[in-house]
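Model it.
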Amino acid sequence: MKSYGHASRCCALIEHLLSHRSESYSVEAVTLAPDLLFVGLRERHGDRFTLRRPAHRVDAGVLQTDALNVDRTRSLAEAERFMVEERDVVVREEVALLAAREPRPSVILSDASFVAGPIARALGIPAVLCTNFTWDAIYLAMLNDDDAAPPAWLDRVTRDYATFTYWLCEAGALDPTRVPAPVRALPTTTIPVFGPARSTTASTREQLRTELGLTATDRVALLTFGGHETAQLLGPLALRFPGWTLVGAVQHPDVVALDPVTVDVPAWMRAADVVIGKMGYGTCAEVLAAGRPFLYVSRSHWAEEAALVRMMREHGAAIAELPRDAFLAGDWLPGMDKLAQPPLPDARR
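Modeled.
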């Protein structure tokens, strides 16, 4: 099960680069994320932006059983398999492909794959890490839940990160004590909240609501879970709350369905009165940009969450946790009512 928070954040970074650099500057994105996420970049920047599907995945990420539950055992096993069976192949093939190009790339930016470091080093070019966390820190936190000693494969992940030239550390960074020392030693600059992805519609709050038969004064809650499947979590729940309409790219009889392929999440953030979902970097960036309150449900075994909660509070966001037992019982109304505020002026960006 995959979500596309990293791809959305990369789109914002690429947009920034192509909008602030000379016409001779181009960007190639190497990703397995859906083409649809990058259509706007192609439309705005033409041949200066290209998309390439790698022959292999570039990291193992984590595996989730659903939107809220990280499968720690399978995630660690899959990460180990990647390091033992795939890592060397990925580095070797990428180095061969990029070395044969004319001209070669001048720099590799990575969010947050560690193999970019050794690839860039073999090519003799800089590698810049652009992320708020590293996978070795995420896996280490999972292992620490059992007080297990870090295995050799995890040490190699850290050594790969240590080959980077620079770290552009985004807001919402993990507590430094959670980051292995060789990664903390990288030259680092902290940058502000990056994103959100550019909105794909010019529709105002009122126009979006009108399309669904809603008025400007109706209370609307947007459900967003970063592209993860929610049927198993939401299916058994009754989600009819007095005075509220729920919308989202989810399948549930009590939720007004938005098209998961074409939904403009940043626009619907602005149209909602409250956002309900999980802590993810992309969602947090969109909530901050929209200025809407956020009722979040905690994820299991996910070290980034505490850092994102801290970031949101530091930026003055109105956030509150919906305890997992209350979420699973459908007892959402007290949290929604507590965070609700009068409709804000349209903040189209």
